[in-house]
Amino acid sequence: QVQLQESGPGLVKPSQTLSLTCTVSGGSILKNGYHWNWIRQPPGKGLEWIGYIAYNGDTSITPSLKSRTSISRDTSKNLVTLQLSSVTPEDDGKYYCAAGLAYWGQGTQVNVSS
User: For residue 55, what are the contacts with CB-CB under 8 A and spacing of at least 6?
Assistant: First the structure.
């Protein structure tokens, strides 16, 4: 069974770049057909899809975040990364990675504060 574990700094200062890592075990990120998604949930709000990197390296990012977001992977380490630049307090929330929508990590909390 695929397992995902998000990691990253819990606190980021405004205007800085947030970098999160999703370490995958129990399956290869190169597995045909999987999209490796990043999703977040701001406090008191619903889930927001950020984007994905597919098994073949293709990426797709939601238009509202496209100018600030990069999703990449390290196939040698079987992990996926999210970078979100110029963060503001509106980027607060819990960030999840998911394999398709079938397997989810537990999420990592991010707070943007000076």
Answer: 29, 30, 31, 32, 33, 34, 35, 36
Beta carbons of 69 and 84 less than 8 angstroms apart: yes
Type of residue numbered 76 = S
The rounded radius of gyration (Å) of the Cα atoms in the chain is 13
> How far does Cα 37 stand from its chain's mean position?
6
Angle at 40 between CA 79 and CA 62, to 5 degrees: 85
Averaged pLDDT, groups of 10, the chain, 114 residues long: 94 97 93 90 97 96 98 96 98 96 95 96
d(CA 25, CA 22): 10
